[in-house]
Design goal:
Blueprint (H helix, E strand, L loop, with lengths): L1 E4 L2 E4 L8 H8 L18 E4 L2 E4 L12 E3 L8 H12 L9 H14 L5 H7 L9 H12 L23 H8 L8 H7 L6
Parallel strand pairs: 1-5
Antiparallel strand pairs: 1-2, 3-4, 3-5
Helix pairs in contact: 2-3, 2-5, 2-6
The protein binds FE2/S2 (inorganic) cluster (2 copies).
Protein name: Isoquinoline 1-oxidoreductase, alpha subunit
Organism: Novosphingobium mathurense
InterPro entries: 2Fe-2S-bd (IPR002888), 2Fe-2S-bd_dom_sf (IPR036884), 2Fe-2S_ferredoxin-like_sf (IPR036010), 2Fe-2S_ferredoxin-type (IPR001041), 2Fe2S_fd_BS (IPR006058), Beta-grasp_dom_sf (IPR012675), Diverse_Oxidoreductases (IPR051452)
Length: 198
């Protein structure tokens, strides 16, 4: 089967009912997309399918065979994705980083649909789970991107320190968003058959 992933056609040898997440991580080695619950509950596995945030752990290959799939590895190749990642770094959103690939995909999908979402729209769309509790930082970054924050993005990128932000190193944030944080999750890997770092 051929899949369109991050602008490239990729050959995949898997049954049509195989979850997309399994193929991304285990067959293609694209481990920026994370395995959390496997039950469409947490959002860690989120990717974009034709621009719409989609939980890849419950999405069979057959359902995306003719779609454009975007993963965290390529999110910065679009202007919007780059803006989201920059805001995540500016607001130091990630802590452990595990959920942040999915959070960035959810944010990008919302902003693609609605350039200036209201607080209610942000609350409704940003429902991925974060065990580190980065929700206040996510909200600050989203309001920045929506232009509804007192410290809204004016292109200067100087908005650190808003109330509710969770401290974390910029380098850690950048690495986590890019899906390269060295977060060990041996248990997860055993579940998905992956080897090595999460
Ligand atoms: S791993 Fe897909 S929603 Fe949790
Ligand atoms: S689970 Fe650690 S940053 Fe969200």
């Amino acid at each position: 089967m051929k899949l369109q992933i991050n602008g490239k056609e990729m050959d995949v040898e898997a049954e049509g009912d195989t979850p997309l997440l399994w193929v991304l991580r285990d067959d293609l080695g694209m481990t920026g997309t994370k395995y959390g619950c496997g039950l469409a509950q947490c959002g860690a596995c989120s990717v974009l399918v034709d621009g719409v945030v989609t939980r890849s752990c419950v999405t069979p290959l057959d359902a995306v065979a003719s779609s454009a799939i975007t993963t965290i590895e390529a999110i910065e190749e679009t202007d919007l994705g780059k803006r989201v990642v920059d805001a995540w770094v500016r607001h130091q959103v990630p802590q452990c980083g595990y959920c942040q690939s999915g959070q960035v995909m959810a944010a990008t999908s919302l902003l693609k649909e609605t350039a200036a979402p209201t607080d209610d729209e942000i609350r409704a769309a940003m429902i991925n789970l974060c065990r580190c509790g980065t929700y206040n930082a996510i909200k600050a970054a989203m309001k920045d991107l929506a232009g509804t924050s007192e410290t809204a993005d004016n292109g200067q990128g100087l908005h650190l320190g808003s109330a509710g932000m969770v401290a974390g190193g910029v380098a850690v944030a950048a690495a986590a968003v890019a899906g390269t944080a060295a977060v060990r999750s041996k248990g997860r890997n055993e579940d998905t058959g992956s080897e090595g770092d999460a």
